[in-house]
Amino acid sequence: MQTEFQTAYKQLNPAQKEAVDTVEGPVLVVAGPGTGKTQLLSVRVANILQKTDSDASNILCLTFTNKAATNMRERLYQLAGPGSRNVVVRTFHSFAAEIMNQYPDYFWEGARLSVAPDAVQLEIIQSILAGLPLDNPLASTFAGAFTALRDVKAGLKLAKEAGLTPDQLREIINHNLAFMDKLEPKLIDILAPTLSVKKLPELQAAIAKLPTQKLETDSLLLPLDTVIQESLDYAVEQDTPTGKTKQTGKWKQRWIQPVNGERGMFAERKRNNWWLAVADVYEQYRDQLHQRGYYDYSDMLIEVLEQLQRQPDMLADIQERYLYVLIDEFQDTNAAQLRLAHAVSDHYSANNRPNLMAVGDDDQSIFAFNGAELNNMLSFRRSYPDTKLIVLEDNYRSAQAILDTAQQIVEQAEDRLVKREPSITKNLVAKNTPQAKTHIEHLSYPTRQHQYTAIADRIKELWDSGGGDVAVLARKHNSLKQLASILLSAGIPVRYDQQSNVLEHEAVKQVCLIADLAVAIAEGNKAAVNVGVAELVRHPMWQISPRTLWKLATANYSQPDWLESLLTHNDDKLNKIGNWLVELARISNQQPVTLVMEQILGLRDSQYFKSPFQDYYLSLRPLASDYLETLSAIELLRGLTKEFSHSEATLADFVRFVQLNLSTNRVIADESWFMSGERAVQLLTVYKAKGLEFDNVFVVDGIETMWRPRSGGRSSPANLQLQAYGEKYDDYIRLLYVAASRAKHTLIATSYFTDEKGNELLPTPLLSALPTTVVTEPTDEPEAVLEADLRWPRLASSDEKALLHDRLEQFALSPTAFIDFLNVAEAGPASFMERRLLYLPRAQSAVGGYGTAVHAALETAQRLVNTSKLEPGTVLDRFEAALAEQQLAPLDYKRFNQRGHELLQRLFEPGGLTLTKDGLTEQRISDIKLDNARLRGTLDRIDKDGNSLLISDYKTGKALTSFDTKDQTKAIKAWRHRTQLLFYCLLVRHSSRFAKASPVTAQMLYVEAVKPSQISLSFQPGADELERLQRLIEAIWPCIINLDFPDTAHYTADMAGITKFENDLLAGKI
Question: Does 3.40.50.300 match the CATH number of domain 4-112+298-392?
């Protein structure tokens, strides 16, 4: 009777048998999708146990997920029986953790550290960045947040995955910079002449003579001169057939750039200097983690590699224990993981022929965000020249047409193993053709919702007819969430591994708002309390009537104190809410967050009031699941808060934890899955679908913008590839290849050609291999996707006018209010009433507070110049006092205080900001009337010279170099600034105080400009501009006074949308 092993072995094809039988020496197996690699690994382990005297514990199998490790253990048990139980099957990280546990004295001097929560990691990085000098490239901020925070965190991760310690990273970068000092002058001379196709061979010859960067044999760097030479050869190869120098020109610009009249390797130096700064942060980060009793999860491999190098006894012990090492999904290994596998398997007695098998497929490398590199598959053969290479091409999953389509998709990739190694071919052949008819198609619909509705209809047909299992694959969860609700409403069972950010859940936002408010009350932060109460009471769970809300708002217009209004209100419900908030504030630092949260959620009564939270969500039966999801999310947040605080957490710890994650845009994922019935349709991201197979596969949202590299990103040095996923077009090609190769017989990709604003979209070119059908007239109306928008409630028009009567009688349009109304990209008419008529309180950012303090300091400086002489000390004192009034967080205050001191000292140096004697500061103009419109404004500074007038407005932040920029990222900012100055000019033109002024010039003074020459940006407005501005004011004034705000949802949220809105107002279309 045959054993399970013998049966499995007989079922292998010749290539698989060769891999199984090659027990000794290095083996690299290139295994495409559906070629049976998992079975191969299991049979090979069983074969080693059959043919050698090795114990099961001498075999180490390394994989990437716990699920894969579990599956392998189960297969081994089936093939080899109980004896296989001792085979060591681990993920790379669990193997590293095991080494740490077995040899504790070698790590951190025997100290027992725990893995740092993500929030602690972020907090440490933030504190390090806050302590950097302001000229450090990592220290810049925008809107109060460190602009480099995400890049630094990603950079630390990439450095660790490359197996680099801080010292190693610093040494590599310094070596690069030193070599560039030697290389740069020669490269500048070589590239000085104009490029010519005829002289490209001469250019190649000259580049070949550049100095050579000498490196250690085990260096992670490639020689920079080699990178320059190879990139030139590639550009020349592309240009030669065309007779042009387009690609060579790009190559030249990549290496030499002109800056301030000089030419040099500025871009490459900038990359290297950024990573040099990261190395310093990296060192401090590790030190602070260890001081707090933590280590980073990503640190485990680095720590193990370091100690394996330093402790030869430990290395020898591990090498002698593991005689056979196998690696699954080898294409996904990063440099650190590869070094660990080499270190464990490469015993000196093996003579560079370790018993190491790696199985993978470069075309399925979709985890490059973990540092995975195609180079690892190539370096395997370089490390072990005697490697036996085996390619598996027999596919046991898909129809041949599916394989051919997938092949056409992946052949679009530039960097593949078959291109680097021409001796390798990968042509998959179907060996188990499905009986069902093959169907391959790309369907393009008018809109995203038409697409989802049509997919749901198609899936229902398959499900009703028993047409096999179905999977819907997408790049992002957002696509799957919307489709899940449509499928469920159609009665189709769904299994969905959902992943949502708990901080975006509407109910969680309300919990966080109440917590914020309680802590703000406890800290006496009146401004934050006003903002919080005004936001809180509008939610329907409190059941406060719109009329009562309006009365609250109008009562808090001139001297807002929203909490006091609740406490002293004649409405008993408002009294109770106010007292309840005060009670929460009182216990927020006295009781554990668990108990306080129970009161917020309505699970526990308080002395004054029971929170309506639980009753509200349970009363809305369709939303009852939201309440349960919220409880799950809050439980997750409470646990994470406790980890973060490293002690018994309070509500203040909870608030600090949430604010840290919000400020850094970190996703707190609540991963769960639900299955609503048998034969459920599976909804998966492509990453989750790796290794799975389905009869029918739908790939949704195949539009170009979703399947192409991200713009921007942080580049690594040219010869040190620390590359994050999503920065190469090949990443998306491989992702789509993986999606397509999941299908057995049906592959349907879908896209849509119009976005929600009517803009045209293109399908991703990656779908060109699929026959396309454009559906211009769908048979079904798309299902609406409704989103709740919690705005201030509207009353009947007559009631609103009555309550706002006094306000409207006195209302005058300011420049910022005018811009708010027109700016459909950010605010627009929809929020004008909240911002400018009800004047609901809004939180001021730290950057805004800093700008206010700088304005106050410059006003003081002008007054000193006018009355006596400029005293920098007095100006700095005023700045500090004004900054203190902004009630910033201590860390923000310290940072912006330093920034302000350095700015003001720089401004008053020779060549800095010019303040002329008798300049008028903070000029309030409020006596202007145009037709029926009333105008007002406060001008930072006015300088008079005879009849000529110069209006100045101070701005902190990055300087504009033109008001007519074509850069769309700056266009709205430029429009705001120019419009503000135009409004000031209009005020001056119609003010009796300045009636004879001519000419009038307006300037923005960008006080934080890098160069003194960029501080001032000025213009003289023309009569046509001012006339157009006046017509716009006259067009919007009736909308404001009549509380008749136009719907602007159909305008695009960009400069084009603003211009269109303005033109429609002027044309009387609104």
Answer: yes
